[in-house]
Design goal:
- The structure holds 2 protein chains of 2 kinds.
- Chain A is 43% helix and 14% strand.
- Chain A is an alpha+beta fold.
- Chain A folds into 3 domains: 76 residues, Orthogonal Bundle (Butyryl-Coa Dehydrogenase, subunit A, domain 1), CATH 1.10.540; 109 residues, Beta Barrel (Butyryl-CoA Dehydrogenase, subunit A, domain 2), CATH 2.40.110; 146 residues, Butyryl-CoA Dehydrogenase, subunit A, domain 3, CATH 1.20.140.
- In chain A, strands 1-4-5-8 form a 4-stranded mixed sheet.
- In chain A, a hairpin with a 3-residue loop joins strand 2 and strand 3.
- In chain A, helix 1 packs parallel to helix 3, helix 3 packs parallel to helix 7 and helix 9 packs antiparallel against helix 10.
- In chain B, helix 1 runs parallel beside helix 4 and helix 5 packs antiparallel against helix 7.
- Chain B is α+β, with helices and mostly antiparallel strands.
- Chain B is built from 11 helices and 10 strands.
- In chain B, the strands form 3 sheets. Chain B has a 4-stranded mixed sheet with strand order 1-4-5-8, with helices on one face.
- The chains are: A alpha+beta, B alpha+beta.
- Chains A and B meet through helix 7, helix 8, helix 9 and helix 11 of A and helix 7, strand 10, helix 8, helix 9 and helix 11 of B.
Chain lengths: 401, 372
Amino acid sequence: MDLNYSPEDREFRASTRRWLEANVPKQDLKTLDERKAWHRKLYEAGYVGMLWPNEYGGWGATPMQQAIVQDEMARVSAPPAINGLGIGFIGPTIIVHGTEAQKQRYLKKMLTAEEIWCQLYSEPNAGSDLASLKTRAEDQGEHFVVNGQKIWTSSGPIADWGILLARTDPKVAKHRGISCVLLNMRQPGVEVRPLKQITGSSLFSEVFMTNARAEKSDLIGNINEGWAIAQTTLGFERGGNALGRVTRYVTAFNQLVKATKELKRGGRPLIEDPAVRARMGRIYADLEVQRYAALRVLSALQKGDAPGAASSITKLSYTEFEKRYYELALEILGPFGQLMVAREEFEEVDTSSGEPGTFATAFLWSRAGTIYSGSSEIQKNIIGERVLGLPKEVRADRLKA
Amino acid sequence: MDFSFSSDQQLLKNSARAFLDEHCKPATVRLLWDDPRGESESMWKEMAQLGWHGLSLPEAYGGSGLGMVETAILLEELGRAAYPGPYWPTVLSAAAIEAAGTDTQRKRWLSAIATGDARATLAFLDNDLDWDPAAVTTRAEKSSRGWTLSGTKRFVPWAHVANVLLIPARVPEGPSLFLVDPSAAGLKLSPVQGMDLATRWVHLELDKVPVAGDAVLGAPGQAASLITDLLRRGAVGAAAEMLGAARRCLDMAVGYAKVREQFGQPIGSFQAIRHKCSEMLLEVENSHSAVYYAAWALDAKAEDHEVAASVAKAYVADASRKVCGEAIQVHGGIGFTWEYDLHIYFKRAKALESMYGDVDYHREQIVRRATR
């Protein structure tokens, strides 16, 4: 056991810090073009696609280096790269399961954010039970005709391409009739309607497909074998943002400290109230444990251990923590915690997910983490079955009729 | 960066597990409940022969010169076995003597502790129940032959079997740490029994207890930081033991959920039980991260070792209470019976929760450092 960073990692951190100090944009990035330009700059510096193999335009870096970059970006609240789903999940899926032609066509443009990607998995009636999805892709020889509806699609309005799960054989058991195919989002048969969330903004969309066309050459893997591909997709990339996420929590904690020093109750700063201190101590202990756990995950990734189902523990841990964290922060701040616009006592909080904003924004966003990418309940099912080896539950869809 | 155990550390863990599975079975623990001393002399001697008592002592005193990570590995296994005896108070006292003792004091005690010939303990808590070492109320007054100590020490672990007591007391310049003979005049020991029958506490009344002039550890009045360090180390050790108790309870709960059937199914197939077990695993794994991060930080004198120690104690206290309690819930009625072994570990975790600084104390330490 040795939790010191290696000299190489320390040097890498120092050079990353120098680069960011020289290059982080001084103003907020407002337009998509500005965000793409920043993304490209990050990519050319070697900070995007770090774990991708060199032959597909990646940098062949280590998980630790990737985590250090995310951590340093969080430290200076640098705007993130875009196309996160593409680079984190969809690209690796194409690398593992795609044809050579698909790799040549899509990967480089994904890395450089020339083309933005989204994921077309969830449906109004297929959430946790994703395999019950109803969107159909009918085989027309050279291409598929796609009809159906997807939901909770991040980056929908800006996406050029989507990775789609659709039913190609309705006659077999639900897991067996699903295929995975790439869909051009820029066609008349695809309509994207933004969804307004509880934060008031619209980062998700609904996607309606009406006689949309997907090329046969864009099928990933074999027909009707899309479910297994979707399973591997969900396993990529846990841990890369582990340190950066915690650093953003710490940045927010420092804002909380500042606020509790400035806000007074009965003439005394909140920070002097023992009840407030007890809550702050609880938050900080919890936060530090997230950091230790992140280091543990990273150390395993460094050694080449695939976390597998254990990555469900990580996801469950930090998303549930985030809810406790902002609940306690809002308890401490009272009505001030509910303000949606930054003011003197409340600078913007660097939230680890979602969008920038106040503690109120972060509090609202914390409700999302335990739902997306497999809800906490699904994670607990996975942990129970695959880590603890508890027996599978009896489910109606597993019983023979 | 490597968060996993080295092969030597894994070997130590495996051999500790094997030894305790054989020599410290639940039945052994139960037998010792009724023993006046509460511990087994033969187990103590065998542990010493395995090198456990001198694990972190210098080789010159018969030790192995290892660190807090190795000590935590052992303590986790001891907690997993709900080991009854003065192992941690003795080893922690040895660390104090090693850190601050004179040559004579080290020679007198360290080899004897390493060979299993001596036991020791530390009396952190005074009558006012304040864990802050600076707040010590027991007084030491200069006498013709040294000092006399007066005051009350509460919940001192295993003092009734100790050959030497490490007692913090105040001199005008500040807190000091004294080596006190348990049979000294004016010292009254009374047993205090909590719910964990395998943990023994002692109430100490000190009425002008004579202590020799050379029985001070370090300079008189200068022991505040030494005692704080010991409390911190003690807290990490206690967290390791609580982690062990929690992991035992988790293992028992998962094992039971796989075989116990209701409604024609193993209860582990029900989400109500499976989700509980998953939450327990999450708490146990986070506790593992907290304990071993803190142990490493103490060894490496990392910048954040003070916070890390308090984080470990505060976090694992909550986590182990939850995990051990939920294990009873998973078991249902059988988990509430005296005959079933779960309560042994449930009570051990509870006993340690309030020792070496309780959750409130450690949260306050964390806030002081995190809000500077």
